[in-house]
Amino acid sequence: MKRIHAGFLPPMAVDPGSGSPMYQQLSDWFRQAIIGGQLRPGQRVPSTRSLASELKISRIPVLGAYEQLQAEGYLETFEGAGTCVARAIWDDPATAAGARRPRTPPQPTAGDAPRRLSRRAAQMRAPEQTWLGNMGAFRVGLPALDQFPMAIWSKLVGRHARHLPLEAMTYGDPMGHLPLREAIAEYLGTMRAVRCDASQVVVTTGAQQALQICAHVLLDAGDRVWMEEPGYPGAHQALRTAGARMIPVPVDHDGIDVAEGERRGRGARAVYITPSHQFPLGVTMSAARRMQVLDWAARNGAWIIEDDYDSEYRFGGRPLASLQGADTSARVIYLGTFSKVMFPALRLGYMVVPRDLVADFCAARDAMDTFSSTLYQMVMTDFMREGHFARHIRRMRMLYMERRAAAREAIDHCLGDRFEVIGAEAGMQLAGLLPVGVDDVAVSRRAALEGVSVRPLSLCHLQPPVRGGLILGYSGAGVEEIHAAMRKLSRCF
């Protein structure tokens, strides 16, 4: 058995006024901690000098306790490694049962008072999603992690970690690391036609936190919000937990139907949209619809939450300009994320907010979790400024074009007319409709048993859809894996 590095010791105290000698109190405490499993075989214990200093007592009783425990076989000493819990402690019949007994956490009993939770807690729960347990084909939102420039990223992380200034180790600006905000503003202005400067950029831990901040700053409980139908479930969750009343507005080939939204949701305070690449259908909002929704917001004093989650990956030409860039009334809050173009565990996203709302959004960001990791913000700044970010996007755009073509070919070969593809000209996933009567949740669960992750389209609806469907993410799987997974999926219908 290997030696285990010293961990945190459970709370320990000695009572000088007790009738029991201090060395005896210490040896009793260690003995019970070892038998109870709180100290593990092979785990290092503090030196006699450091333990005496911590307890503010003489070193003599600590030496006496350690000698007693070593004599009884509870502790052993290794040359150059200090004192550890005896590795063979479980072989001792007197202690084996106690040492192996798991420590059970406290459980409520029948006589306890009711364990009340908030209504908000129930709103946060999502149905069991077995299809999220697989990381290959066709996990939605998963980039090509095997193609990420890890050597470059690791070099940048090491550079900053080795020379991290003291100010970077303290509490950071809730708005985010200023150089990163400047790099984001420059990137958005060039690539997405977003009109902003660094003072309007708020760095978040991702698009989901940005949605939560928007919901808490812009809306009161009961306020009406237009939602794309079908739409992004994460937005449903963020707005639902804020107490908003979501109004489903149908999406057609031109995007959200603004006229239908005005009929269904009079007096709405906001609209959530994904105009560049609608999630999950993949359609692009037409210029006419963009002007309609901007006009509606200006006339009604409403807010537009524009989620631009993967607009970098458009295959029919250059990425479309953002809706925010056409806004003349400062009604658009623009959201973006690095999870899709970098990797999800980075936990960095951003918002661009109108100037008059900066103080309110900054306060909300501070209230949520203060600030994002300064180290990773510094690394991301260099990744962008040194050109690695732009090169990575260009490489991934070509790779995803290849994988999208492979997915379309595999669908035609394996699924045929059982899967009607819609909106496949952009992004990292495609959606399709199943025949009437086919349960998309059941298909997704069967696919998960085959090791294939597909998301049911019906879970993106606020109202029961006429037809179910599936969302297939192709970006995180190679061409051969795509074809193999599609054959497995065909057996799940």
From TrEMBL:
Stored SUPFAM superfamilies: PLP-dependent transferases, Winged helix' DNA-binding domain
GO molecular function, one term: DNA binding
Classification via Gene3D superfamilies: Type I PLP-dependent aspartate aminotransferase-like (Major domain) (3.40.640.10), Winged helix-like DNA-binding domain superfamily/Winged helix DNA-binding domain (1.10.10.10)
Pfam families for this protein: Aminotran_1_2 (PF00155), GntR (PF00392)
Secreted as UniProt keyword: no
SMART domains documented for this protein: HTH_GNTR
Region Disordered: start-end pairs: 95-124
InterPro entries reported in the protein's UniProt record: Aminotransferase_I/II_large (IPR004839), HTH_trans_reg/aminotransferase (IPR051446), PyrdxlP-dep_Trfase (IPR015424), PyrdxlP-dep_Trfase_major (IPR015421), Tscrpt_reg_HTH_GntR (IPR000524), WH-like_DNA-bd_sf (IPR036388), WH_DNA-bd_sf (IPR036390)
HTH gntR-type domain span: 20-88
Keyword entries, A-Z: Aminotransferase, DNA-binding, Pyridoxal phosphate, Transcription, Transcription regulation, Transferase
Domain of life of the native organism: Bacteria
Keyword Transferase: yes
Family note: In the C-terminal section; belongs to the class-I pyridoxal-phosphate-dependent aminotransferase family.
Protein name: PLP-dependent aminotransferase family protein
Lineage, highest ranks first: Bacteria, Pseudomonadati, Pseudomonadota, Gammaproteobacteria, Lysobacterales
